[in-house]
């Protein structure tokens, strides 16, 4: 491998911080702001036990308010950094930087963010990576604008050159491109040499067109955690069972089956007649811990046990994420990890 060749690090590798954006009255959270703020406070409290967090705020008033809420909950503010930049909403998994590591520093891939295929206004979110770079948040880094719609939640890597993604999402964004072309482009931009596609799996209430981070995630180079459905009467059963079979047929770089960790199925969450996407696969890996979305469901405890087996060297920390799925996402969707060294200490 070339000395300065880029590498897409896995989420479990050391991090300098986690990036989030604070919800406020001008975001889509306005109608349930109090509920979602409690989730964000719990999130910041959990992250700062292990590492710093960077909180993007829309203006000085939002920063003052967010700092007050965090201080009143005894957050370690020495591990909280605020930066001011405009944003449409708070789904930073999809609008934040996709970071490759080089020997000489970092390569920030700034793909187009189109509001999940034009479903929502996203002009300010699409400009977020540029804004954060201009603010000097990232060190030893170069930004590359890529004229291609891709969200961070649509891809997952093992850090060793294997990418996991879903055909439904990428085909929806780029209907004129075949699988070989998409594989070649993803492999080139993301420094991968294997692209594994899932043809099955979806969640009702998910408007991302089947992001992989709601369905299946690498836990190690030889392990995948995935959302299963053991209720044959549920509308998801056939698709998620077929996805489990696809995962069982995949092979590691060494030609071995992956160790698979099926996650339990939460009971349906219905809001105003609409089913919400309560996926346990939308967890966040940080330094020393895995933050797990919890939904106030009996399956929460079993999900924590599965993740403890998949990540035996990390603490499993459940966080209340039922407010998040009202807006069709969960814990991983509102966060973006920043690799170690990307943000100055």
UniProtKB/TrEMBL annotation:
<keyword id="KW-0378">Hydrolase</keyword>
<protein>
    <submittedName>
        <fullName>Agmatine deiminase family protein</fullName>
    </submittedName>
</protein>
<dbReference type="GO" id="GO:0047632">
    <property type="term" value="F:agmatine deiminase activity"/>
</dbReference>
<dbReference type="InterPro" id="IPR007466">
    <property type="entry name" value="Peptidyl-Arg-deiminase_porph"/>
</dbReference>
<dbReference type="Pfam" id="PF04371">
    <property type="entry name" value="PAD_porph"/>
</dbReference>
<dbReference type="GO" id="GO:0009446">
    <property type="term" value="P:putrescine biosynthetic process"/>
</dbReference>
<dbReference type="GO" id="GO:0004668">
    <property type="term" value="F:protein-arginine deiminase activity"/>
</dbReference>
């Amino acid at each position: 491998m070339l000395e300065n060749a880029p590498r897409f690090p896995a989420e479990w590798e050391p991090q300098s911080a986690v990036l989030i954006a604070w919800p406020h009255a001008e975001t889509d959270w306005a109608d349930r702001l109090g509920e979602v703020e409690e989730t964000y406070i719990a999130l910041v409290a959990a992250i700062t036990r292990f590492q710093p967090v960077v909180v993007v705020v829309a203006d000085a008033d939002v920063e003052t308010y967010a700092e007050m809420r965090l201080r009143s909950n005894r957050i370690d503010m020495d591990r909280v950094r605020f930066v001011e930049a405009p944003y449409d909403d708070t789904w930073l998994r999809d609008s934040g930087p996709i970071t490759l590591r080089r020997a000489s520093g970092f390569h920030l891939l700034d793909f187009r963010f189109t509001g999940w295929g034009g479903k929502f206004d996203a002009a300010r979110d699409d400009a977020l990576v540029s804004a954060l770079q201009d603010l000097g948040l990232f060190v030893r880094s170069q930004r590359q604008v890529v004229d291609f719609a891709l969200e961070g939640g649509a891809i997952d890597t093992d850090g060793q050159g294997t990418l996991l993604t879903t055909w439904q999402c990428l085909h929806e964004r780029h209907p004129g491109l075949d699988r070989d072309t998409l594989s070649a482009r993803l492999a080139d931009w993301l420094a991968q040499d294997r692209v594994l596609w899932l043809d099955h799996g979806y969640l009702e209430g998910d408007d991302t067109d089947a992001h992989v981070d709601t369905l299946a995630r690498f836990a190690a180079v030889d392990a995948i955690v995935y959302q299963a459905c053991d209720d044959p009467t549920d509308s998801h059963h056939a698709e998620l069972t077929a996805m489990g079979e696809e995962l069982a047929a995949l092979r590691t770089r060494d030609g071995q089956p992956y160790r698979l960790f099926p996650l339990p199925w939460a009971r349906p969450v219905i809001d105003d007649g609409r089913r919400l996407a309560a996926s346990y696969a939308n967890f966040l890996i940080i330094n020393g811990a895995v933050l797990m979305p919890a939904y106030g469901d009996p399956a929460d405890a079993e999900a924590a046990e599965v993740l403890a087996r998949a990540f035996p060297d990390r603490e499993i920390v459940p966080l209340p994420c039922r407010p998040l799925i009202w807006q069709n996402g969960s814990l991983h969707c509102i966060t973006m990890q920043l690799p170690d060294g990307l943000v100055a200490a």
